[in-house]
Amino acid sequence: MNTINPIITAQALDLTFQTNDGPVHALKDVNLQIDKGDFVSFIGPSGCGKTTFLRVLAALEHPTGGTVTVNGMTPDQARQARAYGYVFQAAGLYPWRTIGGNIRLPLEIMGYPKSEQIDRVKKVMQLVDLEGFEHKYPWQLSGGMQQRASIARALAFDADILLMDEPFGALDEIVRDHLNEQLLALWARTGKTIGFVTHSISEAVYLSTKIVVMSPRPGRIRDVIVSPLPKERPLDIRDTPEFAQLAHQVREGLRAGHDTAMA
Asked: What letter does residue 238 receive in the DSSP assignment?
């Protein structure tokens, strides 16, 4: 029998922001378990709390109710233990540093020896297929390559968890498809646990082992859909009836959540 190994748990999680116009209920009674090696996508309408939940995991926001653990620790403890890497919507590379320098930055801050910094940068640049670009500057790379460099930076200190906030949303469809393929290959090679925010049903279905469908604010989990698709997924799997059925299930969950909110 396989032992389930939860990496992230949320129980009765609430988050309310206090604003000049009154309280904003961003998350309400969120209960979720993410197991080791899962690729979990969060999908829902704008403002439903997808990014907020990811930010809670990363200790960038603090809940006002309930509990959340990351690798058995509080999010603040997990941040201090470097338990996760975080990839933002924009690549966020410093223009005055080379690509290698950008990837190396968190290692410098953490005090890794110079020789280990060099080894780790080389390794993660290979993982994201950026070999030979270490001495280039961000402006010399395409948007897709910059985002791969951002992923490499998040991987540099070899955390077990990778949190990704709609990292490919600003890219064109062809580049996005290519990066989706590369991300799946990277996930298969590294065995990371990945939390991934997206607005794209197709992207969520293609990438994920689990799809978390969220309702409009206050953000609740409407459904957690376990994917029946095989772990190895060529792009043309999107043309199969199984893929279409799964996409339909996600779409129906989003529609039901919207209809409930409007009622």
From this structure: G
